[in-house]
Amino acid sequence: MNPYMTDPEEIPTSDLYADLPLYGRYFPKPEDFGIDIQHVRSHSADSLKYWASVVDLCNESIRIYPADEGGRDVFALGSIIIKSSHLHTRSYAEIDYSYADANEVEAIAVAKNVLEGVKVPEIYFAGKINGRQVLIQERLPGVALAVAWPYLSQDQKQSFKQQARGILRQLQSVKPTNSQVRAHIVSDPNIQNNGRIQPLEYNILFSGANTDPDLSFMHNDLTESNLIVDNDKIVGLIDWEMAGFFGLRTAGEVHRRVRPHESVFWKSLYEDDMVVYE
């Protein structure tokens, strides 16, 4: 099958994501749901009412990622992606995602200034809707690398690995201007205990034993599911909530020891013949 197929009608039943045809595949169509641009990044009373009406459109039929209790589901609604826990009961305390969303907004602003030929999503809304933290963003056209992976040749996989390394080099060129400690752009004061990251990741990022002087900017979640591809090119990079000034070695350690991967081949993204440690 064509790795970059986006038409749900053409996806074989043997596909790993056949039961989630909206996951990781998108080709824009004129009839797709689109936002009212007058409400972009607005928290006025009218805008909050509008964004609440958008969230109300999100049900199980368009849910592409069901979260555990306390987390947020992910929905694909036409040209947008929505992260919200509104289908969950309030019997569990929701993780405070306000810092994660603020970090994503700032990280995307940084990435826009350095990435060449790779798109990042526009953030349309980040805030509270009916007491729940909601993030609404642009849905990038293309196919997630994780979805395309089973249909790629080894040469194609190697090419994507080299392209991802090029992205790492671009990000590594950005250094912090007002801090000399490893940190997310927007620090979460409760990140050690609120369930956003695993204890192992916290120790890798923030332990005093980590004395690496490199504090360059990193996406810090460069898994196959977050890379959007088309026609043998990486065309987009999503999910910037974990980004920060961590340095290449530290991000590589998180990548190897914490992040899930489709294969050992991608787990070694920061290794092998990649000479970027400066």
Ordered list of secondary-structure elements with their pairings:
Blueprint: E1 25-26, H1 45-56, E2 63-65, E3 73-77, E4 80-84, H2 98-112, E5 123-129, E6 132-138, E7 142-144, H3 145-148, H4 154-172, E8 183-184, H5 199-206, E9 217-218, E10 227-230, E11 233-237, E12 244-245, H6 248-257, H7 264-267
Antiparallel strand pairs: 1-7, 2-3, 3-4, 4-6, 5-6, 7-10, 8-12, 9-12, 10-11
Helix pairs in contact: 5-6
Domain Aminoglycoside phosphotransferase: 105-244
Pfam family, one: APH
Organism: Penicillium arizonense
Describe this structure in words.
The chain is an alpha+beta fold and 278 residues long. It has 2 domains: 25-138, Phosphorylase Kinase, domain 1; 143-275. The chain is built from 7 helices and 12 strands. It has a 5-stranded antiparallel β-sheet, sandwiched between helices. The protein has a 4-stranded antiparallel β-sheet with strand order 1-7-10-11. A 3-stranded antiparallel β-sheet has the order 8-12-9. The longest helix is centred in the middle third of the chain and has 19 residues, at 154-172. It starts with 24 loop residues before the first strand and ends in an 11-residue tail after the last helix.
